[in-house]
Amino acid sequence: MQTKDLLQLADQFGSPLYVYDAEKIQSQYKRLTNAFSKVESVRINYAVKALSNISVLKLLKEAGSGLDTVSIQEVQLGLTAGFSPERIIYTPNGVSFEEIEEVAHLGVQINIDNLSILEHFGAKYPEIPVCIRINPHVMAGGNANISVGHIDSKFGISVHQMPHILRIVANTGMHINGIHMHTGSDILDIEVFLYAAEILFDAAKNFKELDFLDFGSGFKVPYKKDDIETDIEELGKKLSKRFNAFTKEYGRDLTLAFEPGKFLVSEAGFFLAKVNVVKQTTSTVFAGIDSGFNHLIRPMLYGSSHLIENISNPKGKERFYSVVGYICETDTFANNRRIAEIKEGDVLCFRNAGAYCFSMASNYNSRYKPAEVLWFEGQGHLIRERETFEDLIKNQIILNFEAVAQ
């Protein structure tokens, strides 16, 4: 996409606005599958939580993707988008047994990360194949909130509890058809990933009828020029060789599975916001925009850095700005960032806004959620309308106090 296209979309659909480049999503999917082309059977299950718009799901379905889901609602979105149940894996954490049952009855692959749930499910449904999520006790990820494979994590069954797992499997007669792990997001060192993979291989040896091994994801994407990213080609080369060797050792054909979210959609996303005010204080120049952390919470929640460009004045002289939102509390996107000179009314573009941005948006301060647009084959297509006041109140029940008092 070009700057003029983004400006045109902001003019056409208003701001704030999320825009997703379909071609980038497709190219990232191809890049990942090409990296593991030496493996005979590879399945990419897109992590729906990253960006759950149904049109994006349909785009990935056409590319050949399956889905990784964490709630029954995400499962239902996948089914609505046209995915068959067998192309969806469901990996919940801390949900009710009733929800797991409901998903199982839909024919979706179940992935369990809790000993008590595993025993309960195996005793009641021994005929339904189950995947087990292992916690490898490997610390990986770019932030404590997105590191999920360490010893204090709530996710997964400890690899050291394998005797308990095997006892449950033997006692219930349940069928384990997959082993899964996920260490965290923004993994830089592929050697850490490969180390955790060896733990998964060792765990897999305890089960004789597996169909797949799921290595999670967490591949880091670049957030700024010359930023470090996961070397997916190098990881593909090394892990493919090791996986193929393990398959021969195991004596049964296995599928290599991944569940990328950010890797597929992050760089495809652009968040456009208009500058409401440029405010000079004694020490700072603030650029206040028509949005806030209600629409893009990652900088405040994770300390994430999004490249911010003034697309209304891309060649202007750079100055230092703190970009802030309109939420009634500290609401900062960037501190003292070099950006081309900003004037009120300019449109700022936040890069890498495809993953965990709209999906984490809220109505805080009773603000509306933005519209979403998919840039597909040279045109912008509206894939979610901007919210209205009616959307804010449609589920509220206005109490008649006079009637109650009587």
TrEMBL record:
Which residues make up the binding site for pyridoxal 5'-phosphate?
218, 356
Cofactor(s) listed in the protein's UniProt record? pyridoxal 5'-phosphate
Which amino acid positions bind substrate, per UniProt? 298, 302, 329, 356
Q: What is its EC number?
A: 4.1.1.20
Q: By its UniProt entry, which InterPro entries does this protein fall under?
A: Ala_racemase/Decarboxylase_C, DAP_deCOOHase_LysA, De-COase2_C, De-COase2_N, De-COase2_pyr-phos_BS, Orn/DAP/Arg_de-COase, PLP-binding_barrel
**Metabolic or biological pathway, per its Swiss-Prot or TrEMBL entry:** Amino-acid biosynthesis; L-lysine biosynthesis via DAP pathway; L-lysine from DL-2,6-diaminopimelate: step 1/1
Orn/DAP/Arg decarboxylase 2 C-terminal domain: from which residue to which, for each copy?
Answer: 18-354
- Write out the entry's keywords from A to Z: Amino-acid biosynthesis, Decarboxylase, Lyase, Lysine biosynthesis, Pyridoxal phosphate
Q: Does the keyword Lyase apply?
A: yes
Domain Orn/DAP/Arg decarboxylase 2 N-terminal stretches:
24-266
Residues the record lists as N6-(pyridoxal phosphate)lysine modifications: 49
Describe the reaction catalysed, as an equation. meso-2,6-diaminopimelate + H(+) = L-lysine + CO2
One BP term from GO: lysine biosynthetic process via diaminopimelate
Active site per database record: 328
The broad enzyme category this protein falls into is lyase
Record GO terms (molecular function): diaminopimelate decarboxylase activity; pyridoxal phosphate binding
What is the annotated role of this protein in its UniProt record?
Specifically catalyzes the decarboxylation of meso-diaminopimelate (meso-DAP) to L-lysine.
NCBIfam families found in the cross-reference section: lysA (TIGR01048)
UniProt subunit comment:
Homodimer.
Assigned protein family: Belongs to the Orn/Lys/Arg decarboxylase class-II family. LysA subfamily.
Against PANTHER family, the record matches this protein to: DIAMINOPIMELATE DECARBOXYLASE, GROUP IV DECARBOXYLASE
Name of protein: Diaminopimelate decarboxylase
Protein species of origin: Flavobacterium macacae
